[in-house]
Amino acid sequence: MYKLAIVGFGVVGQGLAEILLEHRERLKKEHGFEYSVVAVSDFVKGAAYDPKGLDLAKLLALAKENGISQYPGAKTGWNAIDTIVKSNADVVVEATYTDIKTAEPAYSHFKAALNSGKHLVTTNKGPTALFFREVAALAKSKKVQFRYEGTVMSGTPALNLVALCLAGNEIREIRGIVNGTTNFILTNMEKRKSYADALKEAQDLGFAEAVPDADVEGFDAMAKVVILAKAVMGADLKVADVDRTGITRITLDDINNAKAEGKRWKLIGRVAREGGAVRASVRPEKLDVADPLAGVGGATNALTFSTDLIRNVTIIGPGAGKIETGYSILVDLLAINRTAPAARPAAPKKPAPKKTAKKAAKRMKKIRKRAKKAGR
Ligand code: HSE
After folding, report:
1. Which residues contact 197 (CB under 8 A, 6 or more apart)?
2. Which structural domain, as residue segments, surrounds residue 251?
3. Low-confidence ranges of the chain (pLDDT < 50)
4. Using alpha carbons only, what angle is made at residue 219 by residues 218 and 224, rounded to the nearest 5 degrees?
5. For the CA of 221, the nearest atom of ligand 1
6. pTM of the model
7. Residue 300 phi/psi, 5° resolution?
8. Is there a single domain that holds both residue 16 and residue 104?
9. Which atom of ligand 1 lies at the shortest distance from residue 152's CA?
10. Ligand 1 contact, 42 CB (< 6 A)
């Protein structure tokens, strides 16, 4: 039974809670995965802790009113660090807002979780992009797991795909659409919607970042490209090394002109090995409609992995969304369940089987007889 602490109970944290609540039986039956959410902490929605477990339906209802701290009978008032360090959780789910410039406060949450010997599962791009190596090394030294599938392409298997299914290949280039909001805006502009309306809709649907610049200026895609460079290619790339341009200068005219030429604008993230170095970029590219990436519309993401042994592998799937990103946490939890099973309560000691007890008694009788003969 895993005890989970969820830090950050916004769209993603609640998406995970909904999945866990709805699929408890299936997870137990098909994956032997059992859980108890012991703590939730959110900067706005409040915090609650019960070492024996909280009721997820109750938590979700309270979260709607920003009233998690009203959870009856639970310990309340803890901040994120208290929740991580003082709770009896064995896995910390970090889903607070992301800050690509400082990585805080999430980076402190990461360190607190790992330093207290807890596994860390996250969708948080800031600290994963900026401090990937440090976090991975800390997790290793503490003999716990750091899992981050949801940082790129939400629940679509991008990072696990490379780690497991493309293992043994050299990944030479990764190229694709890694930001759902900008792809949604560009697709809607093609349908004659204005840039501002399309952005507003992306915000209402819950996949735009809190500060829109993060999406439209390419910072979010930049973070994902850096994660791919570090996690997949082992590169020591800095955020500042990424050649980055967003979509803010693309006008409706540009989109219509491209359409007339049989082309389509996409914000393309790219990371490639070039002459011993790894180079990365995020910039709008005018793709021929025949290009597989040109056909990817809305908030959907796509990545093409160019490999040495099996050439190009392209994946297309959700890149954002409540359940889609919540799912990425679930898949990481299942991976922990497969590779670092939670401690099970010690089984009660069984009495010795009758046969063995009989044999032992016989042996004792013999020993006593021999001792009597010997006069001891
Ligand atoms: N704002 C991000 C996007 C969310 O639009 O892709 C998922 O990382």
Report:
1. 188
2. 168-318
3. 345, 376
4. 100
5. 6
6. 0.89
7. -70, 145
8. yes
9. 8
10. no
